[in-house]
Structures are given as C-alpha cells and as structure tokens.
Design brief:
The protein is mainly α. The chain is about 80% helix and about 0% strand. The chain has 15 helices and 2 strands. Helix 9 (about 200-220) packs across helix 14 (about 325-350). The radius of gyration is 20 Å and the shape is globular.
C-alpha cells in the first residue's frame, strides 16, 4: 500500500471516530427524550466529552510518548470499542457519560497520533492537503454518519448506532494492523515543556483563534437539530436532509481549505473563511422559517467553518515545525475546549434566553477569532526566528 493510501485509510477511520463524536448532536433531542432529561442537559454530554478530550489527550500522549505510534493507534481503537459497548449495554444517563468519557480519550489519542503519522507520510509541500484528508474523514461523518444516524434512530433504538460503530471499530483495528507501518516513538516530553510553547505570544494567540472559532461554531452545532425542528419548523425528515447538506458542505470546505492553504497561504484562507462564517451565523437570525434560505445558510456556514480546520492545523505546524506532535495535540485540546465552551454556553442561552439566540452569539465568538488571527499573523511576521522551545526526536516511518 502506498503512503497516499495509508493516509486515506486513516481518514476512513477518522470518519468512524468522528461519527461517534458528532452523532450526539444529530440525535440530541431523541436522546434527551429517551433518558428523561432536558435538551440542555443532554447537550452537556458534548461538554463532558470535549473537556475530557481536551485535558486527557495531552496527558496520555505524554505518558505514552515512547510507545510505537502504530501500537498507539491500535490501543486507542480497542479502547474506542469498549466505549461504544458501554453505550449500548449499560442503561441510564450516568453510563452514557462514562461512555462519552472513554470515547473522548480514545478518539483524542487516535486523532493526534493519526495526524502525527500523516504529517510524516506526506511530502513536505503536501502536508496541508494531507491533513485536510484526515479532516475530510470527520466531514464525511457529518455527511453520512450524522444524518443516517438520525434516520436510524427514528426507526430503531438510538443505542444500536453505537453498536454498529463498535463493530466497525473492530474491523478498523485489524485494518490498522495490516496496513499502517511502524512509526518510531518520540522522546518523552514533560507537560510543563508542552505548555511552555504557550508562553510564546504568537503561539498563544494562534491557539486562541482555535478556541473562539470552535466555540462560535459549537454554540450552534450542538443544538442544530432542535434549532431546525423548533425555529425553522422542519420535520424530522427535512432535518435529516439539512444535516446531509451541512455534511456535503463540510466535506467541500475542508478539501478547499487544504487546497487553498497550499496555493494562497494560511492567512488569506483563514481570515476569509472565518469572515464568511460570521456572515452565515448572523444571517441565521434573519432567515426565520424560510426553509430554502436556511438550507443555503447551512451550506455557507458549514463550508466556511470547515475550510478553517486544515488551514489552522497547517498554520500551527509552521509556527513550531520542530514540535509538530505537541502542536497538534495542544490544538486538539483547544478544539475540544472550544466545543465544551460552546455547548455549555449554548445550554445557558436556550435556558435563560431563546434557542434562536445561539446563532448571533456564535457569530461574536468567530469574530473574536478573526481579530486574534490577524494579531497572530502580525506577530509571526515581526518576531525574530527562534529556536523551537522543545527538542523533539526525529520521527522516522519504518516499513513493517
């Protein structure tokens, strides 16, 4: 198998773990009804997942730094399977939280490890596109996994979704064993050294871009299903179609982001993408019950939001090329912190104000990210080149 197909293999598995993460947003109202909690309370399943992902992933990656990266992919998938089994077999809200915790840890480790391996498999001038390919796996989870999951949950028990995901996780484990090459482990890097990167202004500001961009996105995405069914008065079938349109746009956006960053650079791609993101969210507040307009805005919103994913990942790698694994790990943590903040704030908004208010509040978060991005680009241009704060042992891809 060529290196290109190995990257696609990891992207396909990212689709699987992405489905387990995002599916809750697609069936949030049904989960809340089944387990007897409010939509706002069910939304905190996303908050818990994101917080565990954010704080747990860097710790586990540090503790397992000397383990072969291929083994880490396998171990994380085995843990992923266990998390899905718990969601299926054990009843009640508490066990669902336990399942989300286990899935968050396993997914975090898999994603960071897969991106690290991918960055070594891809040629230097194609890293942006290679990372975009992995992001495409998550986008595909929105295209296929989330809308089909909602349709499946409407006809059967929503728990069976996690049973199917668990079975596919078993297959994915054997695929990794058969196709992904051994990757030399990294030298152990203490957490204090990882966070030392955050003392560099250009890096700290760059991570704030991730946080506010994702928080603005998550405020709306977490509650998108009840938003479409309640505010826009869509039927369950039309909501599924809306989620499908959102997913198609996210796929195209992530691929365009990777193409654009290779051709026109990260600053232009990231700034324009987030400004379109702001416009789409503000327009949601004005669309009302016009289904056609809402569909158009779903496409613009998802395309612009997901174009920023590979762009931001690539930009962060350029800020500390000698510490790519740590930068990817920290960025994943900031993504999940943003998801947690967005889901938590969104829950407060729909309880204290109105579900319709989440869109313009989300736009404020993304607008803050735009300002942070402009500042980060200026800092990266004006600061004198410095040695990387961390000495990372070279990673070599070895054939099995």
């Amino acid at each position: 198998m060529t290196d290109k197909w190995k990257i696609y293999t990891l992207a396909i598995i990212c689709f699987l773990v992405g489905t387990s993460e995002y599916i809750i947003a697609g069936i949030l109202d049904q989960v809340a009804l089944d387990i007897g909690v409010t939509v706002a309370a069910a939304g905190q399943l996303i908050t818990v997942y994101s917080l565990v992902f954010a704080f747990g992933t860097p710790i586990i990656m540090t503790l397992t730094a000397t383990i072969d990266r291929r083994k880490m992919l396998i171990y994380s998938l085995i843990t992923f399977i266990i998390g899905n089994v718990i969601a299926v077999a054990l009843p009640g809200f508490i066990f669902l939280i336990v399942s989300r915790i286990i899935l968050a840890l396993s997914t975090g480790v898999f994603v960071v490890t897969a991106m690290t391996v991918t960055s070594k498999l891809a040629p230097a001038d194609k890293q942006g596109s290679a990372i975009a390919t992995l992001v495409m796996g998550f986008s595909t989870a929105l295209i296929i996994g989330v809308p089909l999951g909602r349709v499946f949950a409407a006809s059967y028990d929503w728990k069976l979704i996690f049973g199917v995901i668990g079975l596919l996780g078993i297959i994915a484990t054997f695929v990794v064993i058969a196709s992904i090459p051994r990757t030399a482990s990294e030298a152990p890097i203490p957490l204090r050294d990882q966070f030392a990167l955050l003392l560099q202004p250009k890096i700290a500001v760059a991570f704030s871009v991730t946080f506010f961009w994702i928080a603005g996105y998550s405020i709306v995405y977490t509650y998108i299903s009840p938003y479409l069914s309640t505010i826009t008065n869509m039927s369950s079938q039309v909501v599924s179609a809306g989620l499908f349109a959102l997913g198609i746009a996210s796929l195209l956006g992530s691929k365009f982001g990777g193409f654009s960053v290779d051709k026109w650079g990260a600053p232009r791609t990231l700034t324009i993408g987030m400004l379109l993101h702001v416009v789409a969210l503000l327009a949601f507040s004005l669309a009302g019950q016009n289904v056609y307009l809402v569909f158009a805005l779903l496409i613009l919103w998802s395309f612009s939001a997901w174009s920023s994913g590979p762009t931001q990942q690539y930009y962060l790698l350029t800020l500390a090329p000698g510490a790519s694994g740590i930068m990817l790990s920290l960025n994943s943590s900031f993504i999940q912190l943003g998801m947690a903040a967005g889901a938590g704030l969104g829950g407060i908004v729909i309880q204290k104000a109105s579900l319709s208010d989440v869109s313009w509040i989300g736009a404020i978060g993304v607008l803050i990210a735009v300002g942070a991005a402009v500042l980060s680009f200026r800092l990266s241009r004006t600061e004198q080149p410095k040695e990387a704060a961390l000495s990372v042992a070279p990673q070599q891809i070895e054939s099995t």
